[in-house]
Design brief:
With 403 residues, this protein is α+β, with helices and mostly antiparallel strands. The chain is built from 9 helices and 16 strands. Belongs to the AcsB/BcsB family.
């Protein structure tokens, strides 16, 4: 992609380069060159815009196939993740695969991920030879190669702690160190014509247990604590303003300030576009009316899975004059909270006021109740007293003589 002169210098036929100014030209693959799509533009600004459009289109097309496989409460062979059976003759064998946990997974040490390994190693390896499993850059399991005559693992189970994983994408790597005593000589002929030292078989598998889920999604408190766009992700903090007006940018700046204060170190900031197909993720800040259609539909589907009570309406028990904190059973609406009872009516004459959550005939005084300022002040005062008393007891326990 470029001007006709630039395309000609790259080896494109001048006739094809000239024809590509009106419409893209496709050159089929040949013996000495791959298939080529030729786009000729005379304006560098237009070239940059076309490059951005092609990158965005490739991201939308390739986001789904390149996304790691979602695994939960199942066992899958490693061949499903692209790990093939192969022989290795060198000193350090390394392979890996990506898997994803649900985004609302609660990660803790209540279970483990089982890796059943089918492999073999040759005899005569050094004492330092071993096999290790690395999860998200952290070595979590080690299997020594302690048999001098070699060994075959048909279904060797290796437990990986669940706390090493995180919600979303995870990277699992298998490393096998297979040094020998003769490797110190560094003989190239021995390395080229040497016998296989490690064999990775196709019978290996991985099992992820049933996972606990968080009570809310997304968990912004976890995001504020980590100081990153996603749990455990490296790189800048990505914030996508839905609009570039003063109010939205002010809210985005306030959010970044809160994250920077809560994080161990100040994270780098990157402003990105509100692209729902971007697999890297971002924090979207803005009003609901400013969201793009694709992102608005995604937010609406998430809200539909987590219903919340209607603001301003407090459900109450049937036949009771006091509001209840529990929601009514599905498909059953108390009479005191029905739409007919909640519809305001014009009173014929002045009288006692009623509320949507009061049964007919039960009137309440229209006199204004005292505000919550005094009870709130009392609660703050008693909380301060409790904190002071706890600190005083701790200080006395530290300064008291011990016998």
């Amino acid at each position: 992609m470029g001007s006709p002169q630039d395309l000609t210098t790259l080896g494109i036929d001048p006739l094809v380069a000239a024809a590509a100014t009106s419409a893209p030209e496709f050159i089929p693959a040949g013996d000495d060159r791959p298939a080529t799509l030729v786009i000729a533009t005379g304006d560098r600004r237009r070239t940059a815009l076309l490059e951005d459009a092609l990158v965005a289109a490739a991201r939308r097309v390739g986001a789904s196939p390149l996304a790691p496989r979602l695994v939960e409460d199942t066992r899958l062979p490693l061949t499903a993740f692209g790990v093939a059976s192969e022989q290795f003759t060198g000193r350090l064998y390394r392979t890996g695969f990506d898997l994803a946990l649900p985004a609302d997974t609660l990660v803790a040490d209540y279970g483990s991920v089982e890796l059943r390994l089918a492999a073999a190693y040759a005899p005569g390896l050094d004492d330092a030879s071993d096999l290790g499993v690395v999860v998200n850059g952290q070595r979590v399991a080690t299997l020594p190669f302690g048999v001098d005559n070699g060994q075959i693992f048909k279904a060797r189970m290796i437990e990986l702690p669940l706390s090493a994983f995180r919600p979303g994408p995870n990277r699992v790597e298998i490393e096998a160190r297979t040094p020998r005593a003769g490797d110190a000589d560094c003989n190239p002929n021995m390395q080229i014509s040497g016998a296989p030292r490690f064999l990775m078989m196709a019978g290996s598998s991985i099992a992820v247990p049933a996972l606990a889920r968080m009570a809310r999604l997304p968990d912004l408190s976890g995001t504020l604590a980590s100081g990153r766009t996603g749990a455990g992700r490296a790189g800048p903090l990505r914030i996508a303003p839905a609009a570039f007006d003063a109010a939205t940018l002010s809210a985005a700046g306030t959010l970044y300030l809160a994250i920077a204060l809560a994080a161990p170190e100040i994270p780098p900031l990157e402003f990105v576009a509100t692209d729902a197909s971007d697999p890297r993720g971002a924090l979207v800040v803005g009003a609901a009316a400013d969201l793009p259609p694709g992102l608005a539909a995604l937010v609406a589907s998430t809200a539909a899975r987590s219903p919340v009570p209607t603001p301003g309406v407090r459900p109450c028990r049937t036949g009771s004059t006091t509001p209840s904190r529990a929601l009514p059973p599905p498909g059953r609406t108390p009479a005191c909270c029905s739409p007919a009872a909640s519809t305001p009516r014009t009173p014929a004459a002045p009288g006692p006021a009623t509320t949507p959550c009061s049964t007919p005939g039960a009137a309440r005084s229209s006199r204004p109740r005292p505000g919550w300022a005094l009870p709130a002040a009392c609660r703050i005062f008693w909380a301060a007293c409790a904190i002071w008393a706890a600190r005083r007891r701790r200080w006395l326990s530290m300064t008291a003589p011990r016998w």
